[in-house]
Amino acid sequence: MSGRPEKTPQDWWATGIIEMRPGHIAMRGYAIEDLIGRVSYAEMVYLMTRGELPGREAAALLEAALVAAVDHGPQAPSIAVARIAATCGVGINNAMASAINTLGDVHGGAGEQCVALYGEIAAALPEGEIDPEALHRAAGEAIDALAARGIRHVPGFGHRFHPLDPRAPRLLGLVDRAAEAGTVTGRFAAIARAVEAVLAARKGKPIPMNIDGATAVVFAELGFPPPLCRGLFVLSRSVGVLAHAWEEMQSGERNKGPIPRHLIWSYTGQPARPVPKPREDQDEASTH
C-alpha cells in the first residue's frame, strides 16, 4: 500500500470543468441554460480552456483567429486526407479523425511552436515599454537558438504559396486595434514584427508572417500556453475538414487516391529482374 487514501468512484474522474447531475449541467460554474444564446462559440472555447469568460473584445480576437485558419484547400494534407477518407466509405467522423491525426509538428504545429518562440523572446525582455534595439537583439538571439537546434524554418514566417499571406495583415490589424483599446498589450505583436524584420535583414528579402505567426500573436496576446494553441488550430481547421469531407461524400467517387487514375507514380526502384530459382532447383541442376 502506498499510504495514500484510495480514490472514491466519484473522485476517479474529478474535474473542475463540468458539473452534471440529473436535471443540472454547469460549465465552470455557469448553468448551461444561461450560457446558451448568450455566449458565442469563441467565448465558450475560452471558458472551457481557461476557466473564465473573456471580455467581448478578447473573444472577438479569438474568434477572428479561429475563422482565419479554417481551410487552405485540398493541397493541405489534412484537407486532402479528409477527402480521400470520405471516398473510402467511412463515416464523416472517421474522415475528420483521419484528417486531424495528420496535424503534427510539420503540418499544424507551427502555431504552437511560434507562440513558444514569442514567449522565449518576451522572457528575455524587461517588463514595461520595449526598447526597439533590445527587442531586435532578443529576436535575433531566439532565431540563432533555433538554428543551433537545427531548425532552418522559423515557425510562423514565410509561405510556400503566398508571397504575402492575406490573413496575417488582417489579424495583426485587429490586434493593433485591440491594443489601442487596452484589451491586449500589443507586446507580442511587436515581438512578431521584430522577428519579421530580423529575418528580412538576414535573408535580404521579406519573409512575411504567415497565418501561424499571426494567430500565434493573437493566442499569445490572450495568454494561451503553447500546447493549447495547437488544439485551437485543430478546432479551427476542423471546420474546413468537415466541409471538405461532406462535399466529397456527395461526389459519388469511390477509393479516390492522391493522384488521378490516369497518372502513374514515378518508380525509383530496381529495374526488371528475374526471380531467383528455388535452392532445390539449383541443386538438382548442378547434379546433371
From TrEMBL:
Region called Disordered, residue ranges: 268-288
Keyword Transferase among UniProt keywords: yes
GO molecular function terms attached to this record: citrate synthase activity
Sorted UniProt keywords: Acyltransferase, Transferase
EC code: 2.3.3.16
Feature: compositional bias, Basic and acidic residues: 277-288
Similarity field: Belongs to the citrate synthase family.
Official protein name in the record: citrate synthase (unknown stereospecificity)
